[in-house]
Structure formats: C-alpha cells, structure tokens
Amino acid sequence: MVLAPWAARNWRVFRVFQPIAPEHANMPGEFVPLGYIEWLRTWVDDVKYTESMEFTLDSGPIHIEQAPDYAFDSPEERATVAALFDRYNSATPAQNAKQETKPVDAQPQPQATEPKKGDNGDDAQPDEPDDSEPDEPDEPDEPETNADSTVSVEMTPEIDAGFGEVARARIARNPLRYYVTTPFKRAVSLWFDTHSQYYPFQGELLPLSDLSHELHQDIWLPLFAGLTIVYSLLGILGGWVMWKLDSRIGLMLLVLLILPRLVFLASRENPEPRYVIVFFPFVMSVCAIALCSPIWSAAMRRVRRRRLRIEG
C-alpha cells in the first residue's frame, strides 16, 4: 500500500511496472552491462574487487592484472577476458566522436566599407598605423590531462556480450561455485570485515605487512576484526541460551532479521560490508542475553564453587 502510488506513477510516466528503484538505477531503455555484471558475480568475493572492477566502469581503465587468478578457469579464458578489456580500454572512432566538443561558430568576416569622405570631398587619409604590437590571437586553453584521461573507455553492448558468454561458460562449468561457494565467501567477507569504512584508518586487514603505521592501521584494524569475532561468538552463545530458555520465537525473529538480508547481499556482485553493520545492534543484544542469562549465571556459580573446593 505504501509503494502503490510510486508504482502507479512509474506506470503512468514510463509504462513500466516498477514499485521501487530499478536494480541498477537505470532509466527505461538505458543500456546496462548485464554480461559484465554476471561475469563479476561468478568470482567476486570481496569488496576490494568491487571498488576496482565495477565502480570504475566507464570512468577509468580496467586492467586484467586487477583480477585474481581464481577469476579465470584456464589460460584461454584469461586471454579472452584480457582481449575484452583491451577493447574496453582502447579508443575507437565512435568513442572519440562522442567525446568531441561542438565546433566553435565561425567568426563573421569583416565587410569591406567604402573610404570615408573628408569635409572637402576628398578621400580621408587612412588612420596612422599604431606603433603598438598587434594583439596576438588567443590560444585555446589546453585541457588538463592526466595519465588515464588520454584513454577513452566505454563498455559497449558488443564487449558486454563477450563478458556474458564467459560468465555463462563459467556457470555451466561449475554451478555449485556460482550458486553456493562464491556467495558463501561473500557472506563471510561481509560479516567478518573490519567495518572501518567510516574511520580515518579504514583499509584492508590482510596482508598485515601492508598496514599503515602512520594511520595506526596495525592497531585499529586487528582490534575491529577481533571485536567482530567476539560479537559473533557471543551471539552464537546467546542464541543457544535463548533456545534453552524456550525463547525460540525471539530467536526466530532474530534469524529473520539477519539471515534473509545477508543471503541477498551475498548474492550480489558488489559485496559492501557497510550494509551489514545494521545487524550488529541485534547481535549485541543477544550477547547481553548470553552474559546475563540464568544459565550463564548458574555456570559461573559452578565455576566459583569448583575453585573454592580446589583452594580449600
């Protein structure tokens, strides 16, 4: 009911049934590189590849070296993908025509005028030549360029179709990898990320040798990763306590809050851990249940009694 007015507006304006925003934020009829996205979905399992392989699409060059070895099943497949990236990175006449600016309107030519007559009817003498230097024509400003601006990039439907063929071949070759293994890896990377995207020391935890000492990444990133592990373990313990205390409806609600969304995010080609942060307040509440439950208190009392017996 809430989305019905928006869906009615989209049908009235665009003649498409679109209750919410399109999956790829595209206008009706706009080209979307679905083949390239499908190829990414066959192997991307970490956010670092999303930033380098997808977010730069049509705005900068993409090189085969940016993809890991497991993105290719054979040297032939790697060569095919490399050729597609070469076509994407190379300028073509059609691409250059799109980037040309409109020509400057031609300046009107000065019209010849008759010499002015003097007061006595004689032709007036031409003006004395100006001793000053003539004005030099303004030279056009040179556009600022950088290393990548000299290369025009574009994902065309033909190149996208090539990536789609590679993606379909990979899926047919190993469906389990596409539907189970790779999404599971994405889910793990989403959950056990350092979740430091909004801090000055944000970055990748591994390899540890690349951590910046100036930004104190060697301190904060392992700490954040450790907190994620602690919260996860206590959350599992809290779930077990809720099960033992017959609080299974609450446990079911917790699972329904987290699991469907995590499965959906893990099915995408762009795993972004920032969408998983919203789960942790619920996990923390379950951690509190684990630490404050009667079962936990009873277990701690048993431990104390055993210590007293041993000391006594």
- Uncertain regions: pLDDT < 50 for 5+ in a row? 93-108, 140-150
Number of strands: 0
Biggest sheet statistics: none
Percentage beta strand: under 5%
Distance between the termini: 69 Å
Mean pLDDT: 81
Assembly level: single chain
Rg measurement, Å = 33 Å
Question: Structural class of the secondary structure composition?
Answer: mainly alpha
Helix content: 40-55%
Q: With helices defined by DSSP (H or I, 4 residues minimum), what is the helix count?
A: 11
- What overall geometry do the principal axes of the alpha carbons give? globular
Describe the structure.
The protein has 312 residues and is mainly alpha-helical. Among the domains are: 30-93 and 151-173, no CATH class; 217-312, no CATH class. 51% of the residues lie in helices and 0% in strands. The model is unreliable at 93-108 and 140-150 (pLDDT under 50).
Characteristic terms for this protein:
312 residues; mainly alpha; 11 helices
Can you summarize this structure?
This protein has helices at residues 4-14, 34-41, 47-53, 75-89, 93-99, 157-173, 175-191, 217-244, 248-266, 280-292, 294-311.
Topology summary:
Layout (H helix, E strand, L loop, with lengths): L3 H11 L19 H8 L5 H7 L21 H15 L3 H7 L57 H17 L1 H17 L25 H28 L3 H19 L13 H13 L1 H18 L1
Helix pairs in contact: 2-6, 4-6, 6-7, 7-9, 8-10
